[in-house]
Design goal:
The protein is α+β, with helices and mostly antiparallel strands and 156 residues long. It is built from 4 helices and 7 strands; from the N terminus they run βααβββαβαββ. Helix content is 25%, strand content 27%.
Length: 156
Amino acid sequence: MTAKIHVHTYRVAVAGDEAGILKVFAEVASEVPTRVLPQTETIVQGLVASGQSWVGVDADDNIVGYALAEPCDAETLSLVYVGVSKATRNQHVCASLISKLQEIGAPIVTDVRSNNKSSMVARFERFGFVKGDVNADRTKLRWEKSATPASRDAPT
């Protein structure tokens, strides 16, 4: 038996992607946890319009994941939502989307609810984010591009 190879492409989200994003959002909402509320579509439209959000699409151009971000000040991005369809889990979709945001080079801030069921704090830490303020409700995290590449073999 041969393994099926999954090829996904990644691109900046554009107007018209909202329906596909909302479909995945609704599928994974209980894990975040959140819900699709009447204002959710408007929020997603604004995040897509920011020009800083990314989507992963399959070979049929169906959205399989998203990283919805917006500038929170002149230099920093705020990662508001990230989600990956259950059918494409363990295919590096989330890592690829976060990597696309990191390629911009701007610091990225995000937070994870304490009742998140997707181990997102640990995932963000693997992506190079550092924990900031932790309280009963949320863990804040921040990623910054290293000024100089770290080397484990560097002389001391």
